[in-house]
Design the sequence.
């Protein structure tokens, strides 16, 4: 195969990828929460991305090992974290599921064997097929267009618990490596939760 033909095929492949991504984005609604007036939010430039946050939020200096990490603190002293790299947390709702243990197995265990469940939520079941896992998810997720990227927006079913944030599975590619992004908080106050979602809508990525 000649060099020119190879380049042509690669360019066509890249163009098809761009068209597919554009088509997917065109079907997604832009993420624009409406509860707050963000005109007085301040802009913070983290070099790789910019974001507008409330005036009373502060940044914390942290150092990532395999990724670019930042942290912010809200007025309610909640921590907002961001991981920009190859292994960013996907904010997968399955990770918050409790331990499902068959009732007969649990009843046959002694106290020392049940130590493995300490600090975790345990749900006993009789029939695995009758479990509705959706009932046990602590978050909801929806996909939106955020600054031209397909983004998963995660919100807690009950304010004050679980995860609030954004996850982008493919921000861009660095050679054969995919760069991912997240920005999230855990167990946020209702105020911090609303502010974070508005901040997410202002994200701008630099390449």
Sequence:
């Amino acid at each position: 195969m000649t060099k020119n033909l190879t380049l042509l095929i690669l360019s066509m492949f890249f163009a098809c990828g761009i068209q597919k991504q554009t088509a997917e984005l065109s079907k997604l609604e832009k993420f624009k929460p409406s509860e707050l007036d963000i005109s007085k939010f301040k802009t913070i430039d983290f070099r790789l991305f910019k974001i507008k946050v409330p005036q009373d939020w502060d940044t914390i200096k942290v150092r990532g090992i395999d990724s670019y990490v930042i942290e912010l603190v809200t007025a309610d002293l909640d921590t907002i974290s961001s991981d920009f790299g190859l292994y960013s947390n996907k904010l997968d709702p399955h990770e918050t599921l409790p331990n499902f243990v068959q009732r007969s197995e649990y009843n046959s265990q002694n106290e020392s064997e049940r130590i493995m469940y300490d600090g975790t939520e345990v749900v006993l079941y009789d029939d695995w097929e009758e479990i509705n896992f959706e009932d046990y998810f602590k978050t909801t997720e929806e996909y939106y267009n955020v600054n031209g990227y397909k983004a998963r927006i995660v919100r807690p079913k009950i304010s004050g618990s679980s995860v609030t944030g954004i996850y982008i599975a493919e921000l861009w590619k660095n050679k054969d490596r995919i760069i991912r992004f997240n920005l999230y908080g855990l167990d946020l106050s209702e105020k911090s939760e609303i502010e974070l979602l508005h901040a997410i809508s202002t994200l701008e990525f630099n390449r």
Remarks:
- The chain has two domains: 28-93+137-205, 98-135.
